[in-house]
Amino acid sequence: MDPDEIVYNEFYHTLRNEYRRKYDLALSKCWNICVPAGNSLRGLPITDEFVDDHILKPHPEIPHHFTSIGEDNSCLYKFENTSLKLIEENESTKVNCQHKVGIVSIEKGYNKEFQIYVILVMEMPIHPKYISPNSRIEDEVKLNCSVVSYKDARGFLDQLSDQANTQFDKLKSTLKQIDLDDFNSSEELSSMLQDLTRRYWAIIMRKQSLCLQRDARFQKLLSTSLEVFIMHFMYDKIYYLLSRALLQEDMYLNKKLSQFFDAGITPDQLGADESLAISLPAAIVELATLDAREGPLEKSLCLRSTLDLIVAEVKAAIAEVQTKTENDEITVSSFVYSQSTDELIPLLIYVIVKSRPKRLVTDLHYIKNFLWSASPRDGLSDSLCTFEAAVGILFHLEVHDLPGRSRKVKTELPIGELFDVIARSDQDFTPLDRQIHQLATMLEKCTQN
């Protein structure tokens, strides 16, 4: 028998400690012990009657049927495949003779006489009179959700049992005692916090029902929620320390961004195809919120959504027009199919220049060292690598080394050229022309009103 599966169950723990005589008697007689899942016990007192009703012995006259060990033996049960069915009960307590409870797992052990006894882990108490309001469907832990912020994490953790929630006070106390001066590097601090997350993950996991313990969604949500909870609690301390340590790098990058911004650089000067040199407003607005995000997960999600918006805005432009650049070397449609880093980074650098995050170097270091829930499937690691590559290029890029702006790409457009774009046929449009045409149409409607 695997002790991790039931030893932390409230009923099983109470049975072994407070009702030891009944527990030993059940083992010696090889009676069946029915252990309700932990989340179904919320708000239920474990009494003598409750214990008696959950220890079943074979019926003396009816084969394959069982009765509880209470004095009146009023309830008759029968096993049907993977469930236990209530067959008959005393008229004074009759509720529903069709009541069935699923069997989650069957654990076997040997008593002192080396006889096999069985412990059945049940979905809920086997008699309907014990079904707690807290165990009903509407109060079950919601697993079809996502955790992307501290609010989400607390909302998920608050659904757990009271026993699990008491662990959060202990966790807070442990976090308060952490002195950052005791650590020599970010990696060392990160390793300690990861160990702390894993330890409390295991403690809280053992207090849940077997169904939840075995659910991959619950495992992932609990891991992410604990990580967000811990990093939210430690955010001010860690981020302040990192921002001080990386102050010079952030100041240097900010100076570079100001120079590029004042020079009015455009995506084509940074290496983007001139047909794709559109303004990317949605991505710029998204990245501008990075400074206000707290926690490595929130900041990482901001990076990913920024890249997603860059690709989405370019795809939207290409969806309207398919064309080639002047030199015919790179087709606009190639961006749609490859979306390579080489094509994306010039556009990303442009977005960084326009949004000018204040502590981008600190943010990237913070995410890299204190985000543990990222996986290859969610794209967070790839987003971080792309931003690191863009920042690396920015550090070595000088305004005076940039090529001149393409004559097709303008930050200001004379009225005559605007009319030329409006009059041009759709077949000659590039994504940049399409964006200018849309702006001109908006201006025309505004003047009409």
Automatic annotation (TrEMBL):
Stored PANTHER family: ANKYRIN REPEAT DOMAIN-CONTAINING PROTEIN 27 (PTHR24170), DOMAIN PROTEIN, PUTATIVE (AFU_ORTHOLOGUE AFUA_1G09870)-RELATED (PTHR24170:SF1)
One Gene Ontology MF term: SNARE binding
What InterPro entries is this protein classified in? UPF0507/Ank_repeat_27, VPS9, VPS9_dom_sf
| Top-level lineage group | Eukaryota
Species source reads: Neodiprion lecontei (Redheaded pine sawfly)
This protein's encoding gene = LOC107219323
Which BP terms in the Gene Ontology apply to this protein?
Answer: early endosome to late endosome transport
In terms of Gene3D superfamilies, this protein maps to: VPS9 domain
GO cellular component terms attached to this protein's record: early endosome; late endosome; plasma membrane; transport vesicle; tubular endosome
What range(s) does the VPS9 domain occupy? 247-403
Protein name as catalogued:
Ankyrin repeat domain-containing protein 27
